[in-house]
């Protein structure tokens, strides 16, 4: 597909290049119109206000997509609706010449390359089922220094390697496919590109450096899969995708859209690009299911001493330098609103939380730590669990709504403090994006708690924009110039702090006290299964307690 794809663009024709953005719950499409290589217009087409893919929580800590084929169905539906929209605008879809992909990172899939069938549901980045595996690996590797230096990551349930290890240990179909050399592993980008470039009929099995760097199998210095890391996790290298730069020819799409894949980026890297963060020291924070603050650190990886991740930001071409970032990852941000709506029924819609929180005006001493999947940066504490502190008879759902929004802001404050300590240079304002930034109260709370300006672009879906930019900047397309002087201007809205720093510090200190209450809550115990392991465990504990009580009584 690569050689054929090099017969590309007539620089005088109207061309379109688009981007498929596959997030945890939504797939969207962004198109950029380019005339004579000059800046044109953006068409942003969110497919539907309702989720296209569903996650299930079949057990505590488990987060599954129902079916990887459902992810692809959402992609196909997105493409179809985008083509319908272009037709309504009298634009020929044959003008779409370049396509990029941005995706949720770490989410793990294994499929059969001969049948094209997934061998298990996609295990989402938030999933905690591998906690016991992580504890065993941490015990096996005191300090984790060698692995951390290679990957920039701590051993955690967050990353793909332990999810893949779980699949190899627990799913017969995956083991058999590996033994018969039929298995392919990938994150969501690999699955989408493989399917859209032919699938079992010659589909391209690849990923980019930003996604590979989130697996714990990739060496961020050599920029390749690391044999020693693969041996450590006992993962066969034959099932791994080929690693490419973030902006180059991947291959032709096999679909009604006769276009070429020119870009692949993890969603947070795409947002960094979409926020025009191409210079060392620039940073952005994305508010989605989780919250992700990335700071560009240049062309050399910077290791954190304060609980942050060192990750590959992007590599804009085969011969271009690799750029790195420090990242603070928060597991639960927008997901706390979904929990209040779907699990607790406190709000009827995601937008209602702003109305309720505004009516309260304060949490009145109520602090919410949404550690549903443990705590990520800067703690990396998988045993933490969600907790609400400071409840009184006065507390109502409005106060809980306010506390939930504050929790997102407090978590961002912790990440920013760690990032400032690592870099030694304090940010003076925070660039933000993502779905939650449409909540104006949240943005004001964030400015108050950080005691700094918060800047939100009016087009908040910068993940989609970033991947479209990377596709347009690829060799053979070159309709985007990513040099600082040639970047497009995106209008923005600024929020300034409205409380004094003493009040901000007081509220932050109270929240940190609540965080300590949430720590070390969950311990790894045998799970219930058909053999009665859980029952046996409880009986043993009961007899231990009875024996201890017996010893307390004196002999007659």
UniProtKB/TrEMBL annotation:
Domain Carbohydrate kinase FGGY C-terminal: 284-474
GO MF: ATP binding; glycerol kinase activity
Database matches in InterPro entries: ATPase_NBD, Carb_kinase_FGGY, Carb_kinase_FGGY_CS, FGGY_C, FGGY_N, GK1-3_metazoan-type, Glycerol_kin
GO cellular component: mitochondrion
Protein's UniProt keywords contain GTP-binding: no
SUPFAM superfamilies, alphabetized: Actin-like ATPase domain
Pathway this chain belongs to: Polyol metabolism; glycerol degradation via glycerol kinase pathway; sn-glycerol 3-phosphate from glycerol: step 1/1
Every Carbohydrate kinase FGGY N-terminal domain range: 58-274
A Pfam family matched in the record: FGGY_C
Signal peptide: none
GO biological process: glycerol catabolic process; glycerol-3-phosphate biosynthetic process; triglyceride metabolic process
PROSITE patterns tied to this protein: FGGY_KINASES_1, FGGY_KINASES_2
Gene3D superfamilies xref list: 3.30.420.40
Keywords in alphabetical order: ATP-binding, Glycerol metabolism, Kinase, Nucleotide-binding, Transferase
EC number(s) recorded for this UniProt protein: 2.7.1.30
Family under the similarity heading: Belongs to the FGGY kinase family.
PANTHER family: GLYCEROL KINASE, SUGAR KINASE
Name under which the protein is recorded: glycerol kinase
Native source species: Dicentrarchus labrax
